[in-house]
Structures are given as structure tokens and as C-alpha cells.
């Protein structure tokens, strides 16, 4: 079973004083593409004006260029500890036990724009690169990241066995499509609209995916088929059902904001 997550724009600083070691990253077949893109990003980030335009950064984000320039020699930390933001708040890696982290390492993959798919505990530096960034360097032939990654990532995912659960945003799906087979499924987060219809959820989408990934880790189970996953979800109060062909719908309960309190959502339904 493989749970595929998108990355986050934001990263935690610091880490162990051990620089990026390509041999410690999962999926070594991607090493050449990883190295060429990393070198190109370091080179680009030495030219602030060009880098800010290519990476779509504002004046208050110049520290991101510092990170990029140092990424080949800066401290590293495990993937699920490095990324921050709404989805990774929902995952809450800081509260995982050692056995849960080992389960995540075996079954959770985060699709980085810079490094491609990574296992949960792979040690990586802080960096800034988004799915729609362009890195104008001869090693990339001035191609987009889609052109750089899509064929290799698609081939890699095509070799995976068992259940593949794709929680990525559609922007990251474009950087490498999952295989088309019965046990390869895309998760779409939806909410009841109040008129017996379901609509795609935007504001709480990332949070719900993070919470769902955490629930899967907490279960400690490796599901072999979509039907088994749906049965498990029902048993723990998660509403999961077939959607469009090749998709599952995760139904989220929303609670409107009360006075002085923010709106909330949860993937768990009343038992």
C-alpha cells in the first residue's frame, strides 16, 4: 500500500548537521534527475531577481533564496518533519510513535517538486520550489517541471504494487500520473452542500487529507484492495465511497463558525 501526498510550500528550518545524501533517498532511479534539478536551482538562486521571478517570490521571501543556495550543504531532517502547513498539521508527525514512523516510512510518500517522490523519513534540506516554477538552465533545456519529472515519476508509480492511494493535488498529479488499474485510486475531498449534492471541498481540503493519512498510519494496516479500505473507514467513522471512475470521495463534516470561533471540519462522522 502506498499513500501519496503533495508537499508544502513551507518548510521547517534546521535539522541534523548532515547534508543531503542522495544515497539515503528512496527511489534511487530518480537520482540523476534530482541532482540536475538541484544544481540548476542552486545556480538560479545566485541571481536574486531572476530567481524571484522564476519562483514567484516576494521581497519578504528572500530567505528562501538563501535556503536554495545552501541546499546541498545545509542540515537535513525527515520529510514528514520538514514540511509544515495545513496538511502536515493534520498529519501531526511530532506525535507519531517510533512504530508509527516506521509504518509511515514503508507506506507514505511525499511528492516533492525538487526531489520527486520521497519516503516519509528520507532526510532532506529546506528549499523553495513549486510545481509551477521554471528553472532556466541548460540541463533542463528550459523545460517546465512537468517536462522534467512526468515520464520518470509515471514510470516509477507504474511499478508499484498493491493499493496506491493518491492524495496529491491535481497540480502534482501532473508531475507524474499514477497507473490506471483497479487498485490505483485518487482521493477527492467533498462535503454535503445541503441539497443532497456533494461538492469538492477547497478550504479544508488539505487538512482533511492530512487527517486521513494520519488515520491510516494510526490503523497500522496495509490494505490490499479499495473495498477493504472502504470497510475499514466505515468501522472507524470515516465516510469513504466510490466517486467518479478511478476516484474515492472522502466526505467531510463541516461546522459553521460560531461567534468568535473559526469554522471547523472533521473527517470523522458520529458513530
From TrEMBL:
<dbReference type="Pfam" id="PF03883">
    <property type="entry name" value="H2O2_YaaD"/>
</dbReference>
<dbReference type="GO" id="GO:0033194">
    <property type="term" value="P:response to hydroperoxide"/>
</dbReference>
<dbReference type="InterPro" id="IPR005583">
    <property type="entry name" value="YaaA"/>
</dbReference>
<protein>
    <submittedName>
        <fullName>Peroxide stress protein YaaA</fullName>
    </submittedName>
</protein>
<dbReference type="GO" id="GO:0005829">
    <property type="term" value="C:cytosol"/>
</dbReference>
Amino acid at each position: 500500500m502506498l499513500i501519496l501526498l503533495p508537499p508544502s510550500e513551507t518548510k521547517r528550518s534546521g535539522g541534523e548537521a548532515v547534508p543531503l545524501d542522495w544515497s539515503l533517498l528512496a527511489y534511487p532511479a530518480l537520482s540523476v534527475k534530482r541532482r540536475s534539478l538541484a544544481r540548476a536551482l542552486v545556480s538560479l538562486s545566485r541571481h536574486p531577481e531572476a530567481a524571484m521571478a522564476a519562483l514567484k517570490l516576494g521581497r519578504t521571501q528572500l530567505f528562501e533564496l538563501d535556503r536554495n543556495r545552501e541546499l546541498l550543504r545545509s542540515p537535513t531532517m525527515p520529510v514528514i518533519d520538514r514540511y509544515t502547513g495545513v496538511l502536515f498539521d493534520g498529519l501531526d508527525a511530532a506525535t507519531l510513535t517510533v512504530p508509527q514512523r516506521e509504518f509511515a516510512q514503508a507506506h507514505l510518500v511525499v511528492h516533492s517538486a525538487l526531489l520527486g517522490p520521497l519516503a516519509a523519513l528520507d532526510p532532506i534540506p529546506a528549499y523553495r520550489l513549486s510545481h509551477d516554477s521554471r528553472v532556466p538552465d541548460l540541463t533542463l533545456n528550459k523545460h517546465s517541471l512537468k517536462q522534467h519529472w512526468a515520464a520518470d515519476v509515471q514510470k516509477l508509480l507504474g511499478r508499484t504494487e498493491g493499493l496506491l492511494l493518491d492524495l496529491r493535488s491535481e497540480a502534482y498529479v501532473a508531475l507524474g500520473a499514477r497507473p490506471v488499474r483497479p487498485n490505483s485510486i485518487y482521493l477527492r475531498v467533498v462535503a454535503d452542500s445541503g441539497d443532497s449534492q456533494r461538492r469538492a471541498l477547497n478550504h479544508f481540503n488539505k487538512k482533511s487529507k492530512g487527517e486521513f493519512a494520519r488515520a491510516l498510519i494510526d490503523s497500522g494496516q496495509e490494505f490490499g484492495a479499495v473495498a477493504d479500505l472502504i470497510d475499514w473507514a466505515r468501522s472507524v467513522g470515516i465516510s469513504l465511497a466510490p466517486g467518479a471512475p478511478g476516484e474515492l470521495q472522502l466526505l467531510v463534516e463541516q461546522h459553521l463558525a460560531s461567534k468568535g470561533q473559526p469554522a471547523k471540519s472533521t473527517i470523522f462522522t458520529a458513530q
